[in-house]
Design a protein that fits this description.
Strand content: 5-15%
Low-confidence stretches: 227-231
Structural class: alpha+beta
Number of strands: 7
Radius of gyration: 17 Å
Length: 237
């Protein structure tokens, strides 16, 4: 099987944004909080979110506890590795801009794609804004690092590569192992995975609800900036 056919087979098993839209949301009121020192892993905020939340990564409070649990599990399996969080809450404006920009990239590479097919193709790399988990504060992007804080290879650096698919057979064996260990630890903590992005996991959003067959999502999207006014160019939503 050639690469194109293999990727197409993997994509045919992915959950699609259309499957998330119909899931109702009943926000349970869990607050957004910054990931603090109790996590003990590395926290490095996504550059595009720094104007909104500074150096802090915000997530729903329950997610902090789950990250602590996932890190503890990792330490029992890979003592020489640690867990790093590079993105949590993402403002809806950032999500919409990223999706729009990436949809243009997909369209330029695949001129024949239109309508729903184009939306789904872009959604595999940047979640469709209406169903995205990051704006709920329930989704996180994580990676493995060494105990000294150095990054370890988790796959290609090209952000558009389909070898970011968790189960791509075209990655090196040690990279495959790291991805599966990361996925195992996050699942043990109660997160839902995303098969198109090895780094993306969520709790309480529509992806989590669909993966675990829950009747509703627990978190709605929020337009949030810190109350001290340091984010969003000095204004709060």
């Amino acid at each position: 099987m050639d690469k194109k056919a293999c990727y197409a087979l993997l994509e045919s098993k992915f959950l699609m944004y259309r499957e998330y839209v119909s899931i109702p949301v009943m926000d349970n009121g869990t607050p957004l909080v910054p990931i603090g020192p109790e996590f003990a892993g590395k926290v490095s905020n996504y550059e595009k979110m720094q104007p909104y939340t500074g150096d802090s990564i915000y997530v729903r409070a329950k997610v902090v506890d789950m990250l602590i649990s996932a890190r503890a599990k990792l330490k029992t399996i890979f003592p020489d590795y640690d867990l790093a969080v590079v993105c949590g809450y993402r403002h809806p404006d950032v999500q919409e801009k990223e999706y729009s920009d990436f949809q243009e990239v997909v369209k330029a590479e695949n001129p024949d794609l239109e309508g729903e097919e184009l939306k789904e193709a872009a959604h595999r790399f940047v979640a469709f804004p209406e169903v995205a988990g990051h704006p709920t504060g329930g989704a996180v992007d994580v990676m493995l690092i060494t105990a000294d804080g150095e990054e370890v290879s988790m796959g290609p650096e090209d952000e558009n590569s389909k070898d970011h698919y968790v189960h791509s057979p075209f990655i090196e064996k040690d990279v495959w192992q790291r991805r599966q260990i990361l996925r195992h630890c996050m699942l043990q903590a109660g997160f839902a995975p995303t098969d198109s992005e090895w780094w993306h996991f969520s709790y309480g959003d529509r992806e989590w609800a669909k993966y675990y067959n829950q009747p509703t999502a627990l978190f709605e999207q929020i337009r949030f900036c810190p109350a001290n006014g340091d984010g969003c160019g000095g204004k709060n939503d």
